[in-house]
Design brief:
With about 500 residues, the protein is α/β, with parallel strands linked by helices. It has 22 helices and eight strands. The chain has a six-stranded mixed sheet with strand order 5-4-3-6-7-8, with helices on both faces. It has a two-stranded antiparallel ribbon with strand order 1-2. The two termini are about 40 Å apart.
């Protein structure tokens, strides 16, 4: 019901001049309706009791005439031609749902085991479920205790969030406490970098009274701030109940995720309506389809329309598949058909249908065809396309070309925070991979075979030397690490990395 009221309030007509056609339609209906009613009167020269006996049907009740169906049909077509719409067409490079910043409380109280295994771990699991459910939407992560720190910027890659989220513990945070005000300011600053306003989700067990003023002063931002309580139902919530905000209880099922999704979607719809750069999404075709069943009323003796319609339907269903596809093309452009497939998450089919290069590249990227997507994006000379090319090449582990693509995006648009972040992350990955390769070098260029074991035996000058390696250690040293193993080992040091970074931010005042 709320969604219907939102759509009704946002109703917009693209071609309102078509509404003028309702005047002649109403006039035609009135003239023909009066004529049909006059034919139902008793003929002159016949006694009333005889006319009543000779009349078939009950003329005392209201009747529906053919002109009524025709009038409704024409009205629906006219309303459809006026271009009713209540939403805008989203940009393919922006999230299709509201961007969201997740602020996670990382304190010792969140280690309470009353939500097995503990509150913090349950909150992490729920955040991961939320990120997976919001596939294609951008999500940022902030961790806060006595200070707030950006863990990851707005990104569509759940792997980045997953690796960093798992490493967040109270021991990583440099200052103890519950400074939700700092987290709110940092989240608002992060959303300000996005072209589309979104929502802020606080995942916490309670709220300090000192933070109430910050949330109350945010004014219009209150509607986009959501609280997910990661504590058993009935637990003390602190000052949460003093806020006029949406508070959701963490649940064992997806009830809480559905409530969060509704709130985020509402924020995104409001954001799209205010973005004048986006085109309106024409929904007139909905009324056109509603008018089609009224054609069935035209199957009456003497109406030639029934033959034309019957021939059209017979030709449609009796024609080969290519001909039926041509009929679909009468009503929808290739990009519209591609959008329908894209929304149904049929990304491979959408890539075949789209003619718009950015949408086609986005569909290729979503379907996992990273080389094809990168090649297509590389032919478009815009900052957004260069950024998308870098994303595709990073997913395909082409780190050097990805770095070049991000640098190109920054050349075309110097103020591009996402490109700056992805460039730094990709450089860090490349440095790590190259360092790991150097550390695992077998020395083949020096004449040492990959399967040879060489020991520094300067003291004994060629005397045999025994080693104390166990079988497991020898087996572990037989092969080099694969790229996947290198990348997985990054997670091992992620906690130390975050702790060091947070300490530096706190010492230099870099944290918000």
């Amino acid at each position: 019901m709320d969604g219907f009221l939102d759509a009704l309030g946002a109703l917009h007509l693209l071609r309102p001049v078509w509404l003028l056609a309702l005047v002649p339609i109403a006039g035609l209906w009135w003239v023909i309706r009066r004529r049909d009613l006059s034919t139902g009167e008793a003929p002159s020269g016949i006694a009333p009791h005889l006319a009543k006996a000779l009349t078939v049907g009950d003329t005392g009740k209201a009747q529906v005439y053919a002109i009524d169906g025709v009038a409704v049909f024409l009205v629906l077509l006219t309303l459809g031609a006026s271009g009713p719409t209540w939403s805008r067409v989203p940009n393919p490079l922006l999230a299709q749902t509201a961007p969201m910043v997740v602020a996670l409380e990382v304190t010792r109280s969140m280690k309470a085991p009353d939500l097995p295994p503990n509150r913090l771990d349950r909150a992490k699991f729920k955040i991961l479920d939320l990120v997976n459910q919001r596939a294609g939407a951008r999500t940022a992560l902030i961790a806060y205790s006595g200070s707030a720190h950006r863990v990851a910027p707005l990104t569509e890659d759940p792997n980045i969030l997953r690796s960093m989220l798992e490493s967040l513990t109270p021991e990583v945070m440099p200052v103890e406490g519950e400074n939700a005000t700092a987290a709110l300011k940092l989240a608002q600053a992060e959303l300000a970098k996005s072209e589309t306003p979104g929502a802020i989700l606080f995942v916490l067990d309670d709220l300090s009274g000192a933070d109430v003023a910050a949330f109350g002063d945010s004014g219009a931002d209150d509607a986009s701030v959501i609280f997910l309580v990661a504590a058993p139902e009935g637990s003390p919530r602190g000052a949460l109940d003093q806020l006029d905000a949406e508070i959701i209880q963490l649940s064992a099922d997806d009830t809480d995720l559905q409530a969060i999704d509704r709130a985020a979607a509402s924020a995104y719809r409001a954001a799209l309506l205010g973005d004048e750069r986006l085109d309106w999404d024409d929904r007139g075709w909905v009324l056109g389809w509603l008018a089609m069943p009224l054609l069935l009323l035209w199957f009456r003796r003497g109406w030639t329309m029934r033959w034309a319609l019957a021939l059209m339907l017979a030709g449609t269903f009796g024609a080969p598949g290519s001909a039926r596809a041509d009929v679909v093309d009468w009503f929808f452009t290739p990009d519209q058909q591609g959008m329908m497939a894209f929304r149904d998450k049929e990304y491979g089919a959408a890539a075949e249908l789209f003619q718009d290069p950015m949408w086609r590249g986005q569909a290729l990227f979503k379907s996992g065809q990273y080389p094809e997507a990168a090649d297509l994006f590389s032919r478009i000379d815009t900052a957004e396309a260069a950024f998308a090319e870098g994303m595709a090449r990073t997913r395909n582990r082409e780190y050097r070309p990805a770095i070049a693509a991000y640098e190109k995006a920054l050349e075309l648009q110097p103020d591009f925070p996402d490109a700056e972040w992805n460039l730094a992350v990709t450089k860090a990955i490349l440095d790590y991979v190259e360092d790991a390769r150097e550390a695992g070098d077998t020395g083949e260029e020096g004449g040492i075979g990959a399967d040879d074991v060489v020991f520094d035996n300067e003291a004994n000058k060629g005397a045999e030397t025994e080693t104390d390696f166990s079988e497991e250690e020898q087996a572990a040293g037989e092969g080099l690490q694969t790229t996947e193993q290198w990348m997985r080992s990054v997670d091992t040091d992620m906690g130390d990395f975050l702790r060091t970074r947070f300490l530096q931010e706190n010492a230099t005042g870099g944290s918000e």
